[in-house]
Amino acid sequence: MVKSITFRCPKCNFHLLYKYGKDKYGNQKYQCRNCKHQFAPNHVSKSKVRKYPACPKCGKGSFLHHDYDDYSNYRCNDKKCNHSFFACKPTVKLPPSMSELVGKTDFKRLRHPVQLIISALTMFYIGKSSFRNIALMLNMLYNIQVSHTTISDWCRKFAPLFSNISLSLMPLMNFDSDEWHVDETVVKINGKKHYLWFIIDAETRFVLGFHLTPHRNSKQAFTLFNAVKPLGSPMSIVSDRYAAYKVPTRSIFDVKHIRVESFKDDVSNNLIEAFHKQFKAWYKTKQGFNSFESANNLIAMFVFFFSFIRPHSALDGLTPAIVAGCEYSIKQQNTLLLIA
């Protein structure tokens, strides 16, 4: 008794077939008696997985040229193309400090009204006043007695709440500009030196992100660039001559990297240096931070007030968020806590 075959030749649809061995995956092969076509009905095509990434210019394969701790250097297999490119390793794709905020995400279970809290936050992050001076002003102007310790807690623990507001408004804004400026500055936490990395959009003055770390190397630049890459596509990245920016710019953005040598260059890094000046003026009232967690939260709040609430004279009295395309009415501003 001959076992019946329920399928037909895929080429000519003939029903008489021979068994014709097995393919390299172990599936039974058949040969059509009519057109001699060979096929394996149970064969599942397995696409070839490349060991190394494809060349971004021509799409052909590549080979490993140099391997480093944080990234790899590949070169195109096509000698006519011969393009060299970098790819960061998964070990450097870590979340930045701006995504590790700790605190409250609402204004529930508080003794004081929300308007008073927003006013105190505005005095602290825009007025550059100390906690004791804010408590004194609230007492003298509104006859409200609030401890400077309470104000300190307000300025620190609501960072996740305002971070969520910022994330909800990000899709409304456009950061596809000519230049993004990046630089780092030094802050002290409990007497120890830490490095604070910022990246700013040149056209809107919007602070795209920050990263607080005790180290200063290319791995930190990888972390910051990975976090802000989904926000837009700049034409170039502007930085100083620090070598840590060179490879992350080529591997993550693959755009023109402008390394500023002096103030006489056509393109300078003065925009982010001016931002550092404003940040340092606010930072001096703190005389350093007590812990990494509180420093991270306070810096995140400062960045929010700088980008969403503080009007800039260079932007005709508008905030960076509005210039970037984030349009909202007065009612929406009250709902989103963007005005006191």
Going by CATH, the homologous superfamily of the largest domain would be Ribonuclease H-like superfamily/Ribonuclease H
Strands of the largest sheet, in order across it?
A: 9-8-7-10-11
The second-level CATH architecture of the largest domain is 2-Layer Sandwich
How can the largest sheet be summarized? Answer: 5 strands, mixed
Q: Supply the helix-strand structural class.
A: alpha+beta
Give me some keywords for this one:
single chain; 340 residues; alpha+beta; N-terminal domain of TfIIb; 4 domains; 5-stranded mixed sheet; 3-stranded antiparallel sheet; 11 strands; 19% strand; elongated
Describe this entry's structure for a reader.
- By secondary structure, the protein is α+β, with helices and mostly antiparallel strands.
- It folds into four domains: 1-46, N-terminal domain of TfIIb (Single Sheet); 48-88, no CATH class; 114-157; 163-335, Nucleotidyltransferase, domain 5 (2-Layer Sandwich).
- Helix content is 31%, strand content 19%.
- The protein is built from ten helices and eleven strands.
- It has helices at 114-125, 131-142, 148-157, 159-169, 218-228, 246-253, 270-283, 292-309, 320-323, 330-335, and strands at residues 17-22, 28-32, 38-39, 62-67, 71-76, 84-88, 179-189, 192-201, 207-213, 236-239, 256-259.
- The strands form three sheets. The protein has a five-stranded mixed beta sheet with strand order 9-8-7-10-11, with helices on both faces. Strands 1-2-3 form a three-stranded antiparallel beta sheet, with no helix packed on it.
- Strand 1 and strand 2 form a beta hairpin.
